[in-house]
Design brief:
Elements lengths: L23 E3 L19 E3 L12 E6 L5 E4 H4 L5 E8 L14 E10 H8 L7 E6 L3 E3 L2 E3 L2 E6 L1 H4 L4 E6 L2 E2 L9 E3 L12 E7 L6 H5 L2 E5 L5 E5 L6 E6 L5 E2 L4 E8 L4 E7 L7 E2 L1 E2 L8 E7 L5 E11 L16 E6 L1
Parallel strand pairs: 3-14, 18-25
Antiparallel strand pairs: 1-2, 3-4, 5-6, 6-11, 7-10, 7-14, 8-9, 11-12, 11-13, 15-16, 17-19, 19-23, 20-21, 20-24, 22-23, 24-25
Bound molecules: the ligand Nc1nc2c(c(=O)[nH]1)N[C@H]1C(S)=C(S)[C@@H](COP(=O)(O)O)O[C@H]1N2 and molybdenum atom (MO).
The site of molybdenum atom has 5 residues, from loops.
Length: 342
């Protein structure tokens, strides 16, 4: 095998070649195809900035270091002997890093299986200086004209206390594939997919954010404040979002009763969902089913079209903090479709 190694200044597990060694973007499902509550493993979108490392679980390891009492290295085979935990969570790509205002609608809702990171870290001992959890994936290479030696992300340590952060090695009860990050990836339920570091080999606790291509150059939204100053918001928590699954865009309907339905989610939890059949002029409250804490929830709304015409359908979710999906120009903007009633 053509073995490659980069030069990050600390040890990394040996990886085989990165194949392909370029951006990978595979989006199998359209909105009307999200008919299943749990997305099949083969239907999960695949995104990788620089390629797919071919890593071997037999030689893989994970290092936990930085602001911890007892830094440690675990072989993959030791890790999988620890208690396993399963969490159903919405998985969503935040979209184009170079243009964060486009809604790209890449979703999945899956069951991740792995080790609870907070439990493992409490055994290792977290020092009071630790404020951020840095995570490293072994893929390296050029993205948007910049070369990065590792895929490095971070999250605030408070997120750990809210639970369910996993070192995952399973999806829907099956081993991860290489594309999905085998042997090990980080899963932070409620956070955008960009934070779910694949081919994870290092967790480092630190007092500050790391600067880099994937933390401060991209995936760091700059917002204008009312006083004219700007502030940066790392792309962490998933903003409220919803998608209509049925009807499909461009579907023809008759003048009969019809159930409009879809999925809604938000990191903070969905408060309510509304549906519009007149392009956003008026909104009706949808029925919302219960669901797991981090998973998407089904909404539905009965509709009886009154006359043959073309209708613009939309849904919008509001989270428990009162944030609502914007109509345009955001990664979570409202999805609109058009149906012909004949
Ligand atoms: N190591 C590594 N992890 C990564 C990425 C990457 O390029 N390298 N891409 C991230 C992005 S932007 C997304 S949306 C998710 C996609 O996960 P999936 O391909 O398993 O659906 O992985 C994240 N984890
Ligand atoms: Mo992404």
């Amino acid at each position: 095998m053509n073995e490659k190694k980069n030069s990050v200044g600390h040890d990394q597990p040996r990886i085989g070649e990165i194949r392909p060694h370029k951006l990978v973007r595979h989006i199998p499902l359209k909105p009307h195809e999200y008919t299943q509550r749990i997305t099949r493993k083969e239907d999960v979108f695949i995104l990788s900035h620089v390629g797919i490392p071919r890593a071997d679980p037999e030689t893989w390891w994970l290092e936990i270091c930085g602001q911890v009492e007892r830094p440690q290295r675990f072989g993959f085979n030791d890790l999988v002997k620890l208690p396993k935990r399963e969490v159903t969570a919405l998985h969503e790509c935040a979209g184009f890093p170079t243009n964060p205002r486009i809604a790209t609608r890449r979703y999945a809702n899956v069951v991740w299986g792995g080790i609870d990171l907070a439990t493992l870290l409490s055994e290792i001992g977290v020092r009071p200086e630790a404020k951020f959890v840095w995570s490293y994936g072994c893929d390296y290479g050029q993205f948007a004209d910049v070369t990065a030696e590792v895929y490095r992300k971070d999250m605030p340590i408070e997120r750990l206390h809210r639970g369910d952060v996993l070192l995952a090695y399973e999806i829907n009860g099956e081993p991860l594939t290489q594309e999905l990050g085998s042997p090990l990836r980080l899963i932070i339920p409620g956070y955008y997919g960009t934070n779910a570091v694949k081919w994870l080999y290092r967790i480092e606790l630190a007092g500050e954010r790391p600067s880099g291509l994937y933390t401060t150059t991209y995936y760091n939204d700059i917002e204008l404040n009312p006083d004219g100053s700007t502030s940066a918001h790392p792309v962490w928590e998933i903003a409220p979002e919803s998608v209509i699954v049925s009807p499909a865009d461009q579907q023809s309907l008759s003048l009969d009763d019809f159930e409009i339905w879809g999925w809604a989610w938000a990191e903070a939890g969905v408060e309510h969902v509304e549906v519009s059949v007149d392009g956003g002029k008026s909104w009706t409250s949808a029925a919302l089913e219960d669901g797991d804490r981090w998973a998407w929830r089904r909404f539905s709304c009965n509709w009886k079209p009154t006359q043959p015409a073309t209708y613009a359908l939309m849904s919008r979710a509001t989270d428990v903090k009162g944030q609502t999906q914007p109509l345009s120009d955001r990664r979570n903007s409202v999805y609109q479709l058009s149906v012909a009633v004949v």
